[in-house]
Structures are given as C-alpha cells and as structure tokens.
Specification:
By secondary structure, the chain is of the alpha/beta class. The chain has helices at residues 3-8, 24-37, 44-50, 55-66, 73-90, 99-109, 121-128, 153-162, 176-185, 215-225; strands at 11-14, 113-116, 138-140, 169-173, 188-191, 204-206. The longest helix is centred in the middle third of the chain and has 18 residues, at 73-90.
C-alpha cells in the first residue's frame, strides 16, 4: 500500500456488537429469558429498539416496557451482561462477514484500530481473548465513558488515545445510534446495516458488508470526504 493511502487513513474505529461480532442474537436471547422470568412479554420490535443503545438506556427501556419500575436499570444490565459474557467465555465468537479479514488488512497496512463499544469492559475483554494480541491498539468500553453513544465522547476518547484527528478516521457501525456518535465526533462513518435500518446523513456511507471493504477503499473514502 502506498504512503499516500496510509497517511490518508489515520485509524479505523470499530463498533463491537453487530459490527465486529454477531452478538446481537446473544443479547436478544438474554432479554427474552430475563423478561420471561420477570413475568413480562417481549418482541423482536422491542429488541430492535435496543440495538446500539447504552446498556443503562436499554435497561430503562426494558423496565418501562414490562412495568417493573421496582427494579433498577443497573440490575437489568448486570443480568443481561452476565448471560452474554458467560456465553462468550464458553463458545467461539461468530464474527461478522469480512471482519477478521479487514482487521488483518489494517494490521498489515500499519493502520491502528480502536474498539469502541457500548458493551462493558468485562465483555470486551472476553471477546478480545479470542483475537490475536494487539489487534486493537485502543479499546473504549461503555462503562468507561460519562456519556455513551450517540454522544461523541466514546469516539473522541478513542481518537485522543490514538493521537489522531477524527476527521482522518473511519468509523464502522451497524446502528443509527453508533453512526450518530461517530458523525458527531467528526469522523467519516461507514454504516453496515444488519438488524436495523440506518438513515442517510452527511459524512456517512452505506455498504452491505465489511467484505466489500479494504484499507485502500476506506482511505479513498476518507480522502474524498475530507473537505466536507
């Protein structure tokens, strides 16, 4: 890869759930199981409302949906997180199509990567143990920021840690909430819709799969939108 391509793309910032890893089915299964135990009812439409949200916001949504305001969102998060982490620790992660190949290409090109997730540190660490050491130079978990997605703080924090400008980075996301966060930080966002639709917006491109992307293509995208 040319020096021009390398210098154009300062870093790649990855969402985790639904973008890097196909973990959304694990969260949804945990939601159904917990809500059934609490005597409530749940639907795929409800589950879709939680995609990309902060975990505490998801906990609040669940309690309001089933009328259990006697419980705390933090308690709900703990129940769901425990179920998902236990599964990840005992089973191989299903990665999204093209994800591992794209990560490898970033590594070979010397483009740093950050993992920026609404999921908490305990889950990210469990997932990172299934990837080669050094795959991500920076990781930002949902319990390590004051304001989660769609606020720009998670992506801003990752860029600060990497020492790069968001304007020269690409954000890879599968939810509107995450895309709004990346755009608000000033990055070019590549949306890969999976379970929910993502509206069009400035400095946002849509692709069907990570398998359509490579380092050179992403660098050209950032260069094309750099003046926007």
């Amino acid at each position: 890869m040319s020096d021009t391509t390398t210098s154009t793309l300062a870093a790649a910032l990855w969402d985790f759930d639904g973008t890097l890893a196909d973990t959304e089915p694990l969260w949804i299964a945990a939601e159904y199981d917990l809500i059934d135990k609490l005597g409530g009812t749940w639907s795929e439409e409800d589950a879709a409302q939680l995609v990309g949200n902060s975990l505490l916001d998801s906990g609040s949504y669940i309690l309001n949906a089933i009328g259990r305001v006697d419980l705390s969102p933090a308690w709900v998060v703990d129940q769901l997180l425990t179920a998902v982490v236990d599964h990840v620790k005992s089973n191989p992660i299903v990665w999204r199509p093209g994800a591992i190949e794209l990560l490898k290409s970033f590594s070979e090109a010397g483009v740093p990567c950050a993992l920026v997730s609404a999921s908490y540190r305990v889950l990210l660490d469990a997932a990172l143990s299934q990837l080669p050491e050094g795959t991500f130079q920076v990781t930002v978990a949902g319990d390590e920021v004051r304001r989660g997605k769609p606020h720009p703080e998670p992506y801003e924090k990752a860029c600060t840690a990497l020492g790069v400008s968001p304007r020269h980075c690409v954000v890879l996301e599968d939810s509107e909430t995450g895309c709004r966060s990346g755009n608000a930080a000033g990055a070019l966002v590549v949306a890969i819709p999976h379970r929910v639709d993502i509206p069009r917006a400035p400095r946002r491109l849509h692709v069907r799969s990570l398998a359509e992307l490579d380092v050179a293509t992403l660098a050209r995208m950032v260069e094309q939108f750099d003046g926007d």
